[in-house]
TrEMBL record:
Signal peptide: none annotated. Residues 220-276 form the Conserved virulence factor B-like winged helix domain. This is GntR family transcriptional regulator. InterPro entries: CvfB_fam (IPR014464), CvfB_S1_st (IPR039566), CvfB_WH (IPR040764), NA-bd_OB-fold (IPR012340), WH-like_DNA-bd_sf (IPR036388). It comes from Vibrio ruber (strain DSM 16370 / JCM 11486 / BCRC 17186 / CECT 7878 / LMG 23124 / VR1). Residues 4-63, 71-132 form the Conserved virulence factor B first S1 domain. Belongs to the CvfB family.
Length: 281
């Protein structure tokens, strides 16, 4: 089955001086230009190509990887604006992606970088982009549990923190109080579900909650202590950045965790770090 707007594996039917012709099934054949052939080829072999329609509505193939395929999000830069909309760099040299004016939340301008969702317009059959995400999200019930690990895509900044897309399917909210490290629109993160509110909205965190969070972090700290000969120079006076770089967690959570380990008799907290005094293994 051929999927336009996706990576397809197509068989090479014949080779010419200017490229190779590929079997596109119901679409007939499609030519892959010689300059886009990345490796030695032979008739009967298969090649991975991205399929799209060119400016003349003809099927085209490329070995270039787009920033986002159909059904995906990606950060793209506006390279031009005309009477029908804005065009963004799609990652394909010969094809920019159109975002019609009707699919723009606000008027886009040249050189602006925006998060774009790529889809196929049913009326025209064209692959286009949109910055209006609501119609593509929350189409299925949000069946998550607290502390469930999820994929997050930062979609926009808000007064409360960041709106994120959860697993490519639902809106979520990452509150400023749960943010640590560098977070920006377009960044992909691993996160955890905090709760599904009565109104159906979902709150997320960048780290596990409660005991589950502390247990996981405790294990990482003890493992690091073993690797470092029993001492880590990360204590109360360490910077939040140093702690985040080592354990991908906030300073507050780190301090609670080493406090728990101290109460359990596993570590001793010294002026410049922590020392392993009893290995729990």
């Amino acid at each position: 089955m051929i999927n336009i707007g996706q990576i397809n594996q197509l068989e090479i039917l014949r080779e010419t001086d200017f490229g190779v012709f590929l079997d596109a099934k119901d679409y007939g054949t499609v030519m892959l230009p010689k300059k886009l052939i990345r490796q030695p080829v032979e008739v009967g072999a298969f090649v991975d190509v991205f399929l799209y329609f060119d400016a003349d509505s003809q099927l085209a193939a490329t070995t270039e990887t787009p920033i986002a395929c159909v059904g995906e999000w990606g950060m793209m830069k506006v390279v031009g604006v005309n009477s029908i909309g804005a065009f963004v760099n799609w990652g394909i040299e010969s094809k920019d992606l159109l975002i019609p004016f009707s699919e723009q939340r606000g008027r886009l301008t040249a050189e602006q970088s925006v998060l774009v969702y790529v889809y196929t317009d049913k009326a025209s059959g064209r692959i286009v982009g949109t910055t209006k995400f609501n119609k593509w999200l929350d189409k299925t019930p949000a069946d998550y549990t607290p502390n469930e690990k999820v994929d997050l895509l930062v979609a926009e900044r808000s007064a409360l923190g960041y709106k994120v897309i959860i697993n490519g399917q639902h809106w979520g909210m990452l509150f400023q109080s749960d943010v640590f490290g560098k977070v920006f629109v377009g960044k992909r993160l691993k996160g955890f579900v905090k709760q599904i509110r009565d109104d159906g909205k979902i709150d997320v965190s960048l780290q596990k909650l409660g005991v589950a969070k502390l247990d996981e972090l405790s294990g990482k700290i003890v493992a690091q202590l073993r690797q470092k000969g029993g001492f880590l120079p990360l204590g109360d006076k360490s910077s939040p950045e140093a702690i985040f770089e080592a354990f991908r967690t906030s300073k507050g959570t780190y301090k609670k965790t080493i406090g728990q380990l101290y109460k359990q008799g596993i570590v001793d907290i010294e002026a410049n770090g922590i020392r392993l005094i009893q290995d729990p293994q």
